[in-house]
Amino acid sequence: MRLVILDNYDLASEWAAKYICNRIIQFKPCQGRYFTLGLPTGLPRDHPESYHSYMWNNFFKHIDIDPNNAHILDGNAPDLQAECDVFEKKIKEAGGIDLFVGGIGPDGHIAFNEPGSSLASRTRLKTLAMDTILANAKYFDGDLSKVPTMALTVGVGTVMDAREVMILITGAHKAFALYKAIEEGVNHMWTVSAFQQHPRTIFVCDEDATLELRVKTVKYFKGLMHVHNKLVDPLYSMKEEN
Amino acid sequence: MPSNKSVSDAPVVQFTNCRILKNHKLQREDLWVREGKILNPEKLFFDEKIPADLQLNCKGSIIAPGFIDVQINGGFGVDFSLATDDVRPGISLVSQKILSHGVTSFCPTLVTSPPSVYHKVLPQISVRNGGFHGAGILGVHLEGPFISKEKKGAHPEQCLRTFEEGAFQDLLATYGCLDCVRIVTLAPEMKRSSEVIQELTSRGICVSLGHSVANLSQAEEAVQHGATFITHLFNAMLPFHHRDPGIVGLLTSDQIPICQQVFYGMISDGIHTNPAALRIAHRAHPKGLVLVTDAIAGMGLAPGKHTLGQQVVEMDGLNSYIAGTKTLSGSVATMDTCVRHFLEATDCTVETALEAASLHPAQLLGIEHQKGTLDYDTDADFLLLDDRLHIQATYIAGDQVWRRNTFTL
Description:
The complex is a heterodimer of chains A (242) and B (409).
Chain A: E1 2-6, H1 9-27, E2 37-38, H2 51-58, H3 80-93, E3 99-103, E4 124-127, H4 130-136, E5 150-153, H5 156-160, E6 165-169, H6 175-182, E7 201-206, H7 215-223, H8 225-230, H9 238-241
Parallel strand pairs in A: 1-7, 2-3, 3-6, 6-7
Antiparallel strand pairs in A: 4-5
Chain B: E1 13-22, E2 25-28, E3 31-34, E4 37-38, H1 41-48, E5 54-65, E6 67-72, E7 74-75, E8 78-79, H2 88-97, E9 103-110, H3 115-121, E10 136-137, E11 140-143, H4 168-175, E12 181-186, H5 193-202, E13 206-209, H6 216-224, E14 229-230, E15 263-266, H7 275-284, E16 289-291, E17 304-308, E18 311-315, E19 320-322, H8 335-346, H9 350-357, H10 359-364, E20 382-385, E21 391-396, E22 399-403
Parallel strand pairs in B: 1-5, 6-9, 9-10, 9-11, 11-12, 12-13, 13-14, 14-15, 15-16
Antiparallel strand pairs in B: 1-2, 1-3, 3-4, 5-20, 7-8, 17-18, 18-19, 20-21, 21-22
């Protein structure tokens, strides 16, 4: 794995954004050859805090993506399992995910694959763990009864199929999960640990997230920053070349 | 289940590179328009899955809801209170010219006139939507004749009336037809005003207090019977007194019914009100301030003599007085200069200045679900402005109905 440690949240975000840009440019997408970006998904559609609103406000409305190329799991579908199966099929039809970008929960989960999820799981309906409900309460005015208890999520196996995985981890409250994910063994109680067995994983974090790691680990990867920074050297986008 | 089919074949226009006035703040967002209404782009993206048909770069402009002028007596040589056989050309001329001032909807105002004028003019005016032909007409504002002699201002004394005999029937007989009437200004201290106010309000007509010597209790009683507006605050009413604030006291009165709000018109042309007084009113009750022009026929023309109903007024380019006197009679200000002057005099935010000319008049008339905002599904009447609030382009129902010569998208 690569472990990229930046000083703070903003620098970590910027690094990750530049990296994703470069990956897309290097891929040289064109008509019929799309770069498939995977992101975690979940809540019911109509809620103002739904992933649809979240993705629209934070991503889609700022870019010129064709709406037909944006696929979000629909939590209001009449047959949820069918919705999940269709989603897996769409991923296959798109040629698989080129880069999956996700975060880590305080309980070490990737997407909504809560502790105990099979490391070979596919897209399905999951009941959320109390940790996750507590973490999300802030989006629902702190009222626990308003937080959805179930969510559709890509499986650990689904993400493992991606050609590259990037995990973003910032904040001291995620430090223990990061420790469990990379310094302890592969364990279905900390599902992010599955990526130890993925050929191309990159963890991008800030200083606070490294608080539970061994000094040796942190020093080693910080020493590699000059190599990591080459990955975000600006590349000319095809728009500029033309 | 959201369908993937397009809801309409009409073109979707996306205004980009702009700051829009939304939720009382200027936000870096795009404005989406289709079929004359403001569109929700998120629904378009997820439900209809279609992109915009046309993208227009607004070059960093501010986009604000179109201005609404609820008190305008004429302009460009046109006097709405003149009894002509065909008032439509005059109204059309004014409605077209004020597009360049940012006004997308207005209430043609008639000053105190003899009943014959009302009977001739009112049936000729109708509520209509705006467009390439000009700003929309929301209805007529009748200022007088049921006003106070002591505070008649520029209104002709011989035409003043009371309704103490027949109350609402007197009013109806005077005006003739109330179909297109939106606002009536009257003096609440007049006998039987409460019944009249109640009847007008029940017919959906907004009652405004003005040209009056009412004290605060009389004004509060009027509000309790349904009055919601004050015509050009400070002008043509008793001055604020600390033991009887008069109509001005309504701004901070605690006798206003809970679900009601009092709005007040201000002519912020730098002449009708001292900037300090404007600031006092604004600070006392910022949400109720409605900018109006009270413009007269001379607005937009060179200095000279014009009419204002039965009176002759002299205009010297800035001020307008009853000929031979120092009595102010309307203004020659335009709505956009009022907005800019208000911004400068009160040092308020750009958002506040813009809302005083758009959201607040819409709220006064109870049409804020349709006009006065850039909320989804409201009418696409909006303006493109530069940072100093000069109008660059005016849109009604999504069509560009006016633009500055030097401005192109």
